[in-house]
Amino acid sequence: MDFITFRSDTVLSDVHLFQPNTRHLMVRLNAVGQPVFVSQFKILCNGENADSTSPPGSVCILGNEAVGCVPSREDDSSCVDVPKEEEDGVKEEEEREQREVLQSLLDEDGDLDVLRKPKDHFRTEEDVTERDRVYPIILSKGERVVSEDEEDESATNVIKIEHTMATPLEDVGKQVWRGAMLMADYILSHQQLFRGCTVLELGAGTGMTSIVMASVAKKVFCTDVGHDLLSMCERNVELNRHILEPAGGDLKVCELDWLGNDFCTDPNTEFSWTEDEVADLHNNATVLIAADVCYDDDLTDGLFRTLYRITSNLRNPSTVYFSIEKRLNFTLRHMDISCEAYDHFRSCLEDLRNITDGKMRFTLETVQPTFPQFFTYERIEQLELWKVTAKTLDRNMDSSAIK
């Protein structure tokens, strides 16, 4: 029997807490004993959390498919416009019913009247029959179960992601994080910026952002490191063929180690690059994205070295988008709340902007998160989106002329 393993340094993303329980299905245990789930993330168009900049009745276009707006109630199945007067009447009626229900729970003094079950309602363990007993079921490795919900939810406004929910720090790429949701929101809100582009995602994790990008862009290189994670990412690509095939975009899962020096092109290694793919990236890529990947200083340093190396070899000017969550932690070293990983990220951004080697120039700007929200998650104020423009300078330009 397989066992679920827990460690003291386990971290947990809360993104899944905002999804209905019916959208999560445990399908297996991975090689290290972590429960693996398939969750359904519904694309909300003009939903409750959408920004006012999205006009009423707007639609979200994925490939050649149009996804209509989602009503404010989870259980509604249509998207019919309701007159404001009628909507206000419905709200008043609901509020009146809620007040009546609340009053029925109060006693004559206005206190909450709690109904307690009689003691004889409780049964001893000897009284519980075998029919009443409930045992948890742990699925074996590789075992696959498909629920009715998963079979039914094949519409182009549902993204299916295989992921874990709690991992050690080194496996956080197997979870879905708010930064990926924010980046996906930006992509869906600004599809004209990415349509027809060749895109590289750094640290793709489960691949959710790459899948959203591939519904718009021409070609997406979805990269990370580690066979287990890349295999999960590739399975997610297969789970979302119902979105990718109508869009016509090409999505390739490849290994890219930030602590390495180059692309792995060994044909005997899984998730390696071909020479043609490396050439395609260098000749055609104009967009790079990285969603919530800066949590370790050494990896962040490797990320920025990789970023410089790749952008300096691209034929065309490129734009890099970073999403990051500013995580607040109390540290004994500072005896105060600090954001060390975020501070190091900002330091690397400034170093990038201050490069004066005569080869590259980088400009930075923040993107205000006022665009519509297409996924259900908490868009907290600590979430940030950064835009970096990378331009190759004239090789003959004297470095002293660079300001």
Written account of the structure:
The chain is of the alpha/beta class and 403 residues long. The protein has a single domain (11-65, 145-401), classed as 3-Layer(aba) Sandwich (Rossmann fold), CATH 3.40.50.150. It has ten helices and 16 strands. It has helices spanning 84-104, 148-152, 178-189, 191-194, 208-214, 227-239, 241-247, 275-284, 297-311, 340-353, and strands at 11-12, 24-29, 35-42, 60-62, 65-67, 158-163, 166-167, 198-201, 219-224, 250-255, 285-291, 318-325, 329-331, 336-338, 360-367, 383-392. The chain has a seven-stranded mixed sheet with strand order 10-9-8-11-12-16-15, sandwiched between helices. A three-stranded antiparallel sheet has the order 2-3-6. Helix 3 (178-189) packs parallel to helix 5 and helix 9 (297-311) runs parallel beside helix 10. The chain is globular, with a radius of gyration of 25 Å. 31% of the residues are buried.
Q: What kind of oligomer do you see? A: single chain
| Helix/strand/pairing category | alpha/beta
The domain tally reads: 1
Q: In CATH's first tier, which class applies?
A: Alpha Beta
Low-confidence stretches: 1-6, 47-59, 63-82, 117-153, 396-403
* CATH architectural group: 3-Layer(aba) Sandwich
The proportion of residues in beta strands is 15-25%
**Helical content, roughly?**
25-40%
Helix tally equals 10
**Largest sheet descriptor:** 7 strands, mixed
Tertiary shape: globular
The SSE string, one letter per element, is: EEEEEHHEEHHEHEHHEHEHEEEHEE
CATH superfamily: Vaccinia Virus protein VP39
Arithmetic mean pLDDT: 78
Assign the CATH topology: Rossmann fold
C-alpha Rg, in Å? 25 Å
> Main sheet: which strands, in order across?
10-9-8-11-12-16-15
Distance between the termini: 64 Å
